[in-house]
């Protein structure tokens, strides 16, 4: 993929509404204001100062117990899901503190209902002036199912069936109001034009929803949709529905191959491939000098216990890694969980000959893509990936919060701007404006081809 000289990359920030990485929260410059609004307002203002496209919050609906059948390691090490605030409420706090920053939250199609999701993101889009985004997940853990009155999670072959229908219903609900349906004519009187607000009367395999929505059509038409499915079915789901794909890669080669595949899948669904933005996650480690970088890396590595990484990897793979020897390689597995994380660690383990303990330490303190160095070194690598067609930008993750975001904005963003690879100011108002995405007309979702029946 050849890029025009005028093209610029996009930046999102991957923020954990909790302690973040297992070792990162122990960093001496990490702050523990996870339960306070000022903590998130400050991160949001830092990102807006750096002209980031969006802030993105992952989520989890359980304290995982996949490693050894216990919550102990998650809680002891502050690992994934040990503390996680509800993300849309955090975004409402950040929205009030910013004017431009996009606001993305994760919600599961397995444990929520379309009306609630459509209403919540339409509300956020209105209250933020068109900055809302929904990261769509199907979830995969039985631990989450048991928090929603179910013994087991929906089988893999069915959860994307439900997700496809879920997306159809949410789009129908967002379209249940015409853009000009809200009149608010006091003299007439005519609050909303009844001819322009319509029930959806949806009856399907998973959902029966009458509608209409009780919130007008969102300012963006539809909130921006983010997806991170790495399985074959997940990739096809993203190619049909998503505006942004979030992924992680160990190498430039795997990133290029993935981006080419996803753009081709989007085209197969009748979409303009340019309207599917690929943002791989990276965890930059930056310093003013290489000596400072090495000292930071040594410090962070010393804060990690291998079990802290393995307990998180067990959750992501949905495999209990506690049953395998720590001094032997990562086993070859059929992964019921997140395929992309296994592929990333499989590649890393095979190339570096890691033991399971070393893989756990790496996973807890990994630097996806190896973006480590002084600002010019990191900018060089970002430029290389961008110009090679591996991505349309990056989702920046923090080794510790909030300081690592502040360092990236202070040190790396100016270098990207100097190279004209990144904006120096916001030019539009909405998140779709930032991403260079058109505002979809009412009913535009129906133009996407029906999902391909791809076997898992």
Task: Summarize the structure in short.
It comes from Chelativorans composti. The protein has 456 residues and is α/β, with parallel strands linked by helices. The chain contains 15 helices and 14 strands.
How would the blueprint of this fold be written?
Elements: E1 10-14, H1 37-49, E2 54-57, H2 72-77, H3 87-96, E3 102-108, H4 114-127, E4 132-137, H5 142-145, H6 156-174, E5 182-185, E6 190-192, E7 202-203, E8 208-209, E9 224-227, H7 232-241, E10 244-248, H8 252-268, E11 277-282, E12 285-286, H9 290-302, H10 306-317, H11 339-352, H12 356-364, E13 372-373, H13 375-387, E14 393-397, H14 403-418, H15 431-435
Parallel strand pairs: 1-2, 1-14, 2-3, 3-4, 4-9, 9-10, 10-11, 11-14, 12-13
Antiparallel strand pairs: 5-6, 7-8
Helix pairs in contact: 1-3, 4-6, 7-8, 10-12, 13-14
The pLDDT mean sits at: 92
Note the overall shape.
globular
Compute the gyration radius: what is it? 22 Å
Secondary-structure element pattern, one letter each = EHEHHEHEHHEEEEEHEHEEHHHHEHEHH
How many strands in all?
A: 14
Write the CATH fold name: TIM Barrel
The poorly predicted ranges are 450-456
Strand content: 5-15%
Q: Quick one: CATH class? A: Alpha Beta
Class inferred from helices and paired strands: alpha/beta
Oligomer: single chain
Distance between the termini: 28 Å
Strand order of the largest sheet: 1-2-3-4-9-10-11-14
């Amino acid at each position: 993929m050849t890029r025009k000289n005028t093209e610029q990359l996009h930046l999102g920030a991957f923020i954990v509404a909790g302690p973040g990485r297992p070792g990162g929260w122990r960093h001496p410059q990490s702050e523990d204001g996870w339960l306070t609004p000022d903590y998130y307002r400050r991160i949001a203002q830092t990102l807006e100062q750096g002209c980031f496209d969006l802030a993105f919050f992952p989520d989890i609906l359980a304290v995982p117990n996949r490693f050894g059948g216990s919550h102990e390691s998650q809680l002891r090490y502050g690992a994934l899901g040990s503390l996680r605030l509800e993300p849309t409420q955090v975004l409402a706090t950040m929205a009030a503190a910013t004017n431009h920053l996009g606001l993305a939250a994760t919600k599961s199609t397995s444990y929520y209902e379309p009306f609630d999701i459509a209403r919540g993101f339409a509300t956020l889009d209105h209250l933020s002036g068109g900055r809302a985004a929904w990261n769509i997940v199907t979830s995969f853990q039985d631990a989450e199912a048991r928090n929603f009155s179910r013994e087991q999670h929906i089988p893999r072959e069915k959860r994307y069936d439900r997700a496809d229908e879920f997306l159809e219903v949410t789009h129908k609900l967002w379209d249940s109001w015409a853009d000009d349906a809200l009149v608010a004519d006091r003299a007439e009187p005519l609050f909303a034009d009844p001819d322009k607000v319509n029930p959806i009367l949806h009856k399907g395999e998973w959902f029966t929803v009458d509608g209409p929505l009780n919130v007008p059509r969102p300012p963006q038409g539809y909130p921006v949709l983010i997806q991170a499915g790495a399985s074959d079915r997940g990739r096809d789901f993203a190619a049909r529905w998503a505006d942004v794909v979030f992924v992680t890669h160990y190498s430039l080669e795997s990133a290029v191959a993935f981006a080419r595949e996803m753009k081709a899948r989007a085209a197969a669904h009748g979409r303009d491939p340019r309207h599917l933005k690929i943002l791989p996650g990276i965890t930059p480690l930056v310093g003013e000098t290489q000596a400072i970088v090495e000292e930071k890396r040594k410090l962070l590595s010393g804060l990690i216990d291998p079990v802290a990484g393995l307990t998180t990897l067990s959750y992501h793979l949905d495999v209990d890694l506690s049953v395998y020897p720590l001094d032997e390689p990562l086993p070859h597995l059929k992964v019921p969980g997140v395929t992309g994380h296994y592929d990333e660690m499989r590649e890393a383990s095979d190339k570096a000959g890691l033991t399971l303990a070393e893989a756990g330490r790496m996973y807890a303190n990994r630097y996806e893509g190896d973006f480590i160095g002084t600002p010019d070194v990191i900018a060089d690598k970002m430029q290389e990936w961008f110009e090679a067609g591996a991505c349309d930008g990056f989702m920046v993750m923090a080794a510790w919060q909030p300081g690592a975001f502040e360092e990236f904005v202070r040190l790396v963003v100016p270098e990207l701007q100097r190279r004209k690879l990144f904006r120096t100011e916001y030019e539009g108002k909405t998140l779709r404006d930032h991403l260079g995405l058109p505002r979809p007309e009412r009913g535009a979702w129906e133009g996407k081809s029906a999902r391909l029946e791809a076997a898992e």
